[in-house]
Specification:
Structural class: alpha/beta
CATH class: Alpha Beta
Oligomer: single chain
Number of helices: 10
Helix content: 25-40%
CATH architecture: 3-Layer(aba) Sandwich
Strand content: 15-25%
CATH superfamily: LigB-like
CATH topology: Protocatechuate 4,5-dioxygenase, Chain B
Shape: globular
Number of domains: 1
Strand order of the largest sheet: 8-5-9-4-10-1-12-11
Order of helices and strands: EHEEHHEEEHEHEHEHEHHHEE
Radius of gyration: 19 Å
């Protein structure tokens, strides 16, 4: 019998590939017209967010604080990579999202399982005049030379698709990538940053977290996780399976209150609270919390072993990313 023996949650923000001294350059993009939201998920201008922000926010964006937090994030990523290696997994299910990398308005699946034998990571093409700092930050965890085909546990992916259909989840299915872009950043992050040595076969599950109107609701995400765990247990082969949430927590405007409440609810297995999170709280980058909700549902039989939270601010408007890291085991 297969069993989920490890759960992981991790942010995958481009800031994790950015030196702290370049954080203010991201802030300039925020200021120049990026679509931003307030803590309740409502659209706001950069100037409006500055007016709403706490005066003490200036202390959060000093060079020493940003450097310390960037270093802490790097240490957390290294910790998660070691945990994956030590657990000797046969398969890692990755719950991530696609941001117009493979899926667009002509076909935007709500929940998709990829079951090709391999998944391709291609170099990302950027404008020749793109500055070096932007190339580093926005490489989106693609390889820089050549292409790599990473292994996929296609048999488990097909089993999950069938089992979830039987459980009344309407699952979209893909055996190949339609665009030259290759795997999206949510999955490339895991390959590039969390598997520096031995590559574990994956099962990519893509949720439409970003784009209305068919984003899965929080309760559906949590229940999807429960159904994934049941499907894994029903798989007759002996497999040590991990499941990982890639993305989040709150961004591009950081909401520490929400992030800390989420982490507490994960620790306490507060399914009712997690399933009832208001949709308006999960807009913009914060929408990737859906990936964590799915993993939390799949890890109800496990306990939280470790969490860390690093609010990486980059402007007086409170923009940045609430970096979350967690292990269930």
């Amino acid at each position: 019998m297969a069993e989920i023996v490890l759960g992981i949650g991790t942010s995958h923000s481009p800031m994790l590939a950015t030196p702290a001294e370049d954080y203010p350059k991201h802030a300039e993009i925020d200021k120049s017209g990026r679509k931003l939201i307030d803590r309740d998920g409502n659209p706001r201008t950069f100037g409006e967010l500055v007016e709403l922000a706490r005066p003490s926010l200036a202390e959060q964006i000093t060079a020493p604080v940003m450097q310390q937090r960037a270093a802490r994030c790097t240490a957390n990523i290294e910790k998660l990579a070691k945990v994956i290696q030590l657990h000797e997994l046969d398969t890692l299910i990755i719950v991530g999202d696609d941001q117009h990398e493979q899926f667009f308005d002509d076909n935007m699946p709500s929940i998709l399982i990829y079951s090709g034998e391999t998944i391709l990571n291609n170099p990302l093409h950027m404008d020749e005049d793109a500055p070096d700092w932007w190339r580093t930050a926005r490489q989106q965890y693609h390889v820089t030379n050549g292409s790599i085909e990473y292994p996929v546990d296609a048999s488990l992916a097909r089993h999950l698709t069938n089992a979830l259909m039987e459980a009344d989840f309407d699952i979209s299915h893909a055996k190949r990538l339609g665009k030259d872009h290759g795997e999206g950043h949510a999955f490339g992050f895991v390959h590039q940053r969390l598997m520096p040595q031995e590559i574990v076969p994956i099962v990519p599950i893509a949720l439409n977290t970003y784009f209305p109107p068919n984003q899965p609701r929080p309760r559906r995400c949590y229940d999807l996780g429960r159904a994934i765990a049941a499907a894994v247990r029903a798989w007759p082969e002996q497999r040590r399976v991990g499941i990982l949430a890639s993305g989040g927590l709150s961004h591009f405007t950081i909401n520490e209150e929400l992030d800390l409440a989420l982490l507490e609810a994960f620790r306490n297995k507060n399914a009712d609270w997690l399933r009832a999170i208001p949709m308006n709280k999960l807009n913009s980058g914060t929408s990737e919390v859906r990936n964590w909700l799915t993993v939390a549902g799949a890890c109800e039989h496990l306990d939280t072993q470790w969490q860390d939270y690093v609010p990486c601010y980059r402007s007086l408007a409170g923009t940045g990313c609430g970096m979350g890291f967690a292990i269930w085991g």
